[in-house]
């Protein structure tokens, strides 16, 4: 059981709207602030349901807010940076720490949200713990090259097509970096637009590039290095991955994070037959993995003083 409190808070010039899901029948409790996957910016996204339905009954509060430019929150998501999103999360932490019933605040980041969560933790000493779910250890550009190869492979295309598609993606990235002209790259996209493999390669729809690349989200994030800030993190950290993740190079990410972790209190969990959003992919179960939810709850229990 839980109670829900509507909360509005400010981050610089933006107004953000969220909900705090509170455990019932306890005087104090820890809270996780949930940081969003790239395409799940609204607090009502179905993925977040398992957190607000599972954790409060175990004595853990959950705060979920509409990301800037999403849902009721003001702002422009398309032109904000990771630092902007991190500052929004910091504002949420400051707001929650003013509540007497909250023991401590930790962060839960899913996918891109894991990058934001680790960035916030590197900026703010009083984040109590960090949970990174399906978070790549490589840059967004390298992540999408990986996702392109997997997408094409699963669709049955040849290695030659995979290489052709990734070469084209690299040229698109070169345009955003200012190394190739828009007209040249767009002409290459137009030549391949009718190919059967094009929709599987995460290339621009209709083969069009923005005239002003600074108005595109990709310009601000493609070369972000998640390891830079992770090296500075000293709080207890839980990494969670699904073996069937088609967006993240799971084994490589675990290897890189393990090599760079400076904190001894880091745990890595990897689940077979589980995808990017912790859904079961075999016939033994449906929906969010019960094993994932059980281990998440058990790990969080160490931060509850009750």
UniProtKB/TrEMBL annotation:
UniProt xrefs under InterPro entries: AB_hydrolase_Est10 (IPR053145), AB_hydrolase_fold (IPR029058), Hydrolase_4 (IPR022742)
Serine aminopeptidase S33 domain boundaries: 43-273
SUPFAM superfamilies: alpha/beta-Hydrolases
Domain of life: Bacteria
Molecular functions per Gene Ontology: carboxylic ester hydrolase activity
Pfam families registered for this protein in UniProt: Hydrolase_4 (PF12146)
PANTHER family (UniProt xref): ESTERASE ESTD (PTHR43265)
Name of the protein in its database record: Pimeloyl-ACP methyl ester carboxylesterase
Species assigned in the record: Oceanobacillus polygoni
